[in-house]
Design a protein that fits this description.
The chain is an alpha+beta fold. The chain contains 5 helices and 6 strands.
Length: 129
Amino acid sequence: MDDLRRKGFRITQARKRLLGLLEKGKTPLSVFDLQKSLGLAVNKTTMYRELEFLKKNGIVQEVEFGDKKKRYEISSSHHHHVVCVECKSVKDVELQKDLDAEEKKIAKQKGFKIINHSLEFFGLCPACR
């Protein structure tokens, strides 16, 4: 929030609570989850506008786990996720080996300017096995 204040942006009650929920969240949260937990009457359009603002300012990142449902989490160190296909639980995964070299190799081979990448692992969590 300090970054936003320094840039001259207002910290509204909705923005403050939204950031609080995302900071406390142990998994990426959907707009529905955020709206339900916010504790304020904020319509869906405002939620998407706030999330887009936070995304543009590098505070929040959007993730999608192949189900066409956008989820949001605080932008932090680059990481990946394991997703249970049964109960839909999500856990962060830090890879031991950095993928930068592989990403550069792919960009060169394919002639792409890669902007971002996403890597998720799907399976069954211990409780669902």
